[in-house]
Design a protein that fits this description.
212 residues; alpha/beta; nine-stranded mixed β-sheet; 5 helices; 9 strands
């Protein structure tokens, strides 16, 4: 029987939930990967609702609900998806405070957007996991991987903090890769990004910490 890797998702927002959905819809949950825990400050019952209903991806077709791990806990703290039970944490002290060693976590999906620097993301490894995949551009990472472009350069023995690059890079790099691989070359270029709306953007004018 193939080994199942234990996964935790830190930050169950847009990206965290889409990673989770992909695991479910590709039939990987419970077979190649067990999502053991998610860490997010949003209550478990709300997380269940957000997994079930997605205005872009559509309604999740399987079973999604939340429940209590014990009658003694005040609120639901377990997410149940297609029979798989996922522990819901609400740890805000940082990666090093998370119980990855106790849960036997192999891989952490770091999708809070807060710990994109390798020194900060390494707190997950200090907490007991083996690898951290940052769902954003990072600083000081062991490798940045764009699937279909440079994924063969990944070395499990030395790459422990991995960046999945930016959405723009994931769109542009494959095109550039093919042009160079086929011998066309690029003398100069201009790129314009038309980006979908994100949760951090404001609907009316106001101050923002980025994009101004």
């Amino acid at each position: 029987m193939a080994t199942k890797h234990k996964v935790a998702i830190n930050g169950f927002g847009r990206i965290g939930r889409l990673v989770f959905r992909a695991l479910c819809q590709q039939g990987l949950l419970g077979k190649k990967f067990d999502v053991v825990a998610v860490n997010d400050l949003v209550p478990a019952d709300n997380l269940a609702y957000l997994v079930k209903y997605d205005s872009v991806q559509g309604r999740y077709q399987g079973e999604v609900r939340s429940e209590k791990s014990s009658p003694s806990v005040p609120e639901d703290d377990v997410l149940v998806v297609d029979g798989h039970k996922i522990k819901c944490l609400a740890v805000k002290e940082g990666p090093a405070a998370l119980p990855w060693k106790d849960l036997g976590i192999d891989f952490v999906i770091e999708s809070t957007g807060l710990f994109t620097e390798a020194d900060k993301a390494r707190g997950h490894i200090a907490a007991g996991c083996k690898k951290v995949i940052i769902s954003a551009p990072a600083k000081g990472e062991d490798i940045t991987v764009v699937m279909g472009v440079n994924h063969t350069k990944y070395d499990a023995a030395k790459h422990h903090i991995i960046s999945n690059a930016s959405c723009t890079t994931n769109c542009l790099a494959p095109v550039v890769h093919v042009l160079l691989k086929e011998g066309f070359g690029i003398e100069e270029g201009l790129m314009t990004t038309v980006h979908s709306y994100t949760a951090t953007q404001k609907t009316v004018d106001g101050p923002s910490r980025k994009d101004w």
